[in-house]
Amino acid sequence: MSGLLRTVASRAATPVMRGHSIIQRANVYTRPAKEKIGPVEMAIGLGMFSLAILGPSGWILAHLEDYKKKD
Question: CA-CA distance, 58 to 60, in Å (whole number)?
């Protein structure tokens, strides 16, 4: 029954929504970069991204026993 209601609602709302749609355009540039990034900057950037992504989960896994304790 909910599938039938969803179909009816989507067909009824489509003409109304179609008139007020917003068109978005991406700003994509195909030129090469103005400055090249060196290997040291690349390593630092990748290291910081890795630390930002893996650091919190590593902290939680390292302190898992502390979280399990209920005082």
Answer: 5
* Cα–Cα dist 20/17, whole Å: 6
Rounded Cα distance between 13 and 3, Å, is 15
pLDDT, tens only, 33-47: 888 999 999 999 999
Count H helices, E strands: the chain?
Answer: 3, 0
- pTM here is 0.47
Residue 26 tokens read as 């991406």
Residue 29 is encoded by which pair of tokens? 């540039």
Instruction: Name residues of the chain where pLDDT drops below 50.
Output: none
